[in-house]
Hints:
- By secondary structure, the protein is an alpha/beta fold.
- Helix content is 31%, strand content 22%.
- It folds into two domains: 5-274, no CATH class; 280-507, no CATH class.
- The site of zinc ion (ZN) has 4 residues, from loops.
Amino acid sequence: MTSPRIAVGGIYHETNTFAVGTTALDGFAAYQYFVGDDLRRLAATRSETGGFLTALERAGATSVPTTYAAAVPSATVAHEVYERLRDGILAAIADQPVDGVLLTLHGAMVTDGSPDPDGELVRAVRDLIGPDVPLAVTIDLHANVSAAMVEGTQAVVAYDTYPHVDMFERGQEAADLLLEVLRTGRERHVVHRKLPFMTAPGMQATDGDPMRDLVALAHRLEREAGVQVSLAPGFSYADVDCVGFSVVVSGDDARTATQAADEMAAAVDDAKERFVYGALSVAEACAAAQVAQDRPVILVDAADNIGGGAPGDGTAILQEWLRTGGRGLVTTIADPESVAVCVEAGEGATVRLRLGAKTDDQHGEPVDVTATVQRLTDGRYRHLGSYNRGYEVSMGRTAVLDVAGNTVVVSELKAMPFDAQQLVSQGVDPAAADAIVVKSAIAWRAAYGDVAGEVIEVDTPGICTSFPDRLPWSPERAAMLPHWTLRAHRTTQHPTDSTTATQRAEER
Ligand SMILES: [Zn+2]
């Protein structure tokens, strides 16, 4: 086949079904939304789509851009938004002959019309292209994989890393697998195993126990059995059927792929008791941070995880820090109302604000502060680190405030703290802080891992809480929680010391 034509596109959303409101088209437009040739701009990024485009070009294939849209993780997506994005992809594929399709999915999207729109999209593409055109997809390690997402594909490739730093490589891998199917004409079998339990994001880091061992096994199976193995511990803040831990294996021999999937699934099941998460109370954590030697201390506000759909306006740590007279803290708060007050007052002005905690009643109380507006910006920056390097993102209008010797970066839009440019672009030096609040579970390490001193997991309130029995699950999902919940609670009963809660959980 001379220069195969490969359609490229996708819809990327991690939906927190406990978040208030609905994600509309502007949520995608404000983050990543590319239609037609514009999508080729992603070739300059270390994203999955960048990996697709690069691998296709290297192989002499012709890429056919369709639509790619991603929003920052957030509430349930309006179904008509999904339909519009889907129709954009389908129309572009229908428009011209294609020899294969590559889709970038997150794999944990939920709409108000469907618990599994990712699976519906895969099926719709398969129905359009017919049985003989190969289709490969990439998914996030936090995908809640459904049977429909797997059926009808030739490969489902998940990230191997959390923090996620291998999107580009996984995009290339999926493209290479697709091209191999085209070149050899060999069938590819995809096997999916679901483990019916959920795990805390704070225990899913791929350089820690137990994920490190599981990823190592996946790679060994890939080498020895000649298969592709994807592990997706899943996104635990979605009250839908397909939530949970998945193993997906693909290969050109059905029996080998099945054996590898079963071995991998058994290893995951054996490891489930090792996903033990622990955290200090907000007061314990702030006290520990204020006397810590190894700075900047990272205060992990995982319950307000912006990368998990939380609003990024949680105030629990800031409130306690200010109450105890702490200085040298750096935190972000998404709060458009406060930004408007700061913009009105101007740089250098002193303002009184009711800061944060306005999206819902799950993330603390607004904090009354007197602040100096140090800097006002448009909140735009470009990722220069290891997470989707090249992505251009915007926090909307942004104010850098001094609040009693602490730095609060207040923005109109929430932005995932996955790149140090979020602070550096605002004139804030993370290395010079005494403590940094990260509204993230693990992925913050891609931004601040190299400057981090002591790391303290903090039991803040929020919809990404690592103590999930606080969330209003439907009864059928509640059965998947118990061991995670009970063990996590037990670790909070330890007295404060300067060792991180996670370390102590590991020592036990
Ligand atoms: Zn993820």
